[in-house]
Amino acid sequence: MAKLMIQTQVLENYGTEFRPRWKAKGGDDYVVPNFTQFNDIHAVIDSIREQIETDNSFYQEYIVDWYVAEDNELTDYEQQQLKFDGRITYPAKELVAVA
Fold it and tell me: Which DSSP letter does residue 84 get?
């Protein structure tokens, strides 16, 4: 089995709606488990985009990267948690792709 791994960028506005001051604030990891739609990955990304992305005057989150991985592969953040904490407290968020 495989899974689709998706990474995002988060921006927060520390200004106002009319004088924005955007600051990058990291991002999140999302996973589509049991992924089998290898022939149409872009359509899958488009089908789940609204579950991930946000765009308003004070907060933005958007997809910056994605790749297909082995089912047992961990995100970088999950690996760091295991290394430093000995457990994964904050796993990647699981999504369901709409076929």
Answer: H
Residues 52-89: b if buried by 16+ CB within 10 A, e if exposed:
beeeeeeebbebeebeeeeeeebbebbeebeeeeeeee
Q: With beta carbons less than 8 A apart as the criterion, state whether 77 and 29 touch.
A: yes
Per-residue pLDDT tens over the stretch 3-56: 999 999 999 999 999 999 999 999 999 999 999 999 999 999 999 999 999 999
Number of domains into which the chain is organized: 1
Which domain range does residue 13 map to?
A: 2-94
Residues 47-90: tens digit of each pLDDT:
999 999 999 999 999 999 999 999 999 999 999 999 999 999 99
